[in-house]
Amino acid sequence: MSSATDAPKPHGPAQFEQVLPQGGAAVQFDDERRGLLRAAHQVLHDVPTIVPLLVLAVAIALFSFIVGARFFAPFNLSLILQQVTIIAIVGSAQTLVILTAGVDLSVGAMMVLSSVVMGRFAVTDGVPIWIAFPIGMLVGSACGLLNGFLVTKIKLPPFIVTLGTWSIFGALNLLYSHNETIRQQEVADAAPFLQFLGTAMKFYGARLTYGSVLMVLIAAVLWYVLQRTAYGRHVYATGNDPDAARLAGVKVDRTLISVYTLAGFICAVASWAVIGRIGAISSLSGGTANLDSITAVVIGGTSLFGGRGSIIGTLIGALIVGVFRNGLALAGADALWQELTVGVLIILAVTIDQWIRKVGA
């Protein structure tokens, strides 16, 4: 009589049915680990400001340990806010464009051109400020409209378009201003309104300028528009997938044109803040605004591939840059170390963004 061990082994599907239950525990463990990773990715994807907030908290703790009480002095904290005001305002304009999977390399040139136009109209040509100021705003908006038109109607890549208009706006700026600087006293005599955002008010021992208040107001308004309105959803949808957004009924070209125009207007507002910050009107002011704005946006957690990010993240990113530069300066570090640190932060921010996108895929 044959024993049970001599029974024929099952073949085909029956054999696999017997083997699968034996590996159930390993598969379950792997699923748990993968589930935790996916959960972490989902949190970072849904709340992109988490990482910038952590970096900002670590930076504050680090420099408070290295520098001591000097870092938290009211004057120093207000100085950080003043230093990041321009970056944050221009970065808000840059955020809108990057959310649509584009980039605007001309934000700095638009800002300077707007300041020169409104300044020369009001101070040199004697045009009333209530006319000169809106003209400056219109100049910035028109520059942004031109960028949007070239991107949507001519179908050129945003990088190439804004690289070209950066040179065009810069050349127009030098031609119109004759590379001359309008001095602070001249502005104060002819158009003191242009210096208004540089006015400071006392706030618990700190000097808080109206430019910094405007920075927060712009961030709050844009946050509401992007998070609570249909227009904001259209901006995110355009950045995620323009073809899918078009099929869903979003007027993609109109959205892009409005985004670039609004970015130009915000840059014109930033030009008003620049005049308030330095007091004078110079064709050379804001030379690093292009790269600084992209730095704040990227460090703030906005994806360079579009469709993910926030204005609040950009504000935090600008603060991170300001805190690192200020902290290293107080610690006596060379200016080169400040730029090196910012470069490392940019690479880390893009690396984290790539990881989130890969896990999501």
Q: Can you tell me about this structure?
A:
This protein starts with 12 loop residues before the first helix and ends with a helix. It has a single domain (48-356), classed as ABC transporter involved in vitamin B12 uptake, BtuC (Orthogonal Bundle), CATH 1.10.3470. It has a two-stranded antiparallel sheet with strand order 1-2. The chain is an all-alpha fold and 361 residues long. A hairpin with a 2-residue loop joins strand 1 (200-203) and strand 2 (206-209). The chain has helices at 13-19, 24-46, 50-66, 74-99, 107-124, 129-152, 158-177, 184-190, 210-228, 230-240, 242-247, 252-278, 289-299, 311-330, 335-360; strands spanning 200-203, 206-209.
Biggest beta-sheet profile: 2 strands, antiparallel
**Which range best describes the helical content: under 10%, 10-25%, 25-40%, 40-55%, 55-70% or over 70%?**
over 70%
- DSSP, total strands: 2
Q: Output the CATH topology.
A: ABC transporter involved in vitamin B12 uptake, BtuC
Order of helices and strands: HHHHHHHHEEHHHHHHH
Domain count? 1
Measured by DSSP, the beta-strand proportion falls in under 5%
Shape: globular
How many whole angstroms does the radius of gyration measure?
26 Å
Average pLDDT score: 86
Strand order of the largest sheet: 1-2
Structural category is mainly alpha
CATH class: Mainly Alpha
Second rung of CATH, namely the architecture: Orthogonal Bundle
Give the count of helical stretches: 15
* End-to-end separation: 59 Å
Q: Stretches where pLDDT falls below 50 for ≥5 residues?
A: 23-27
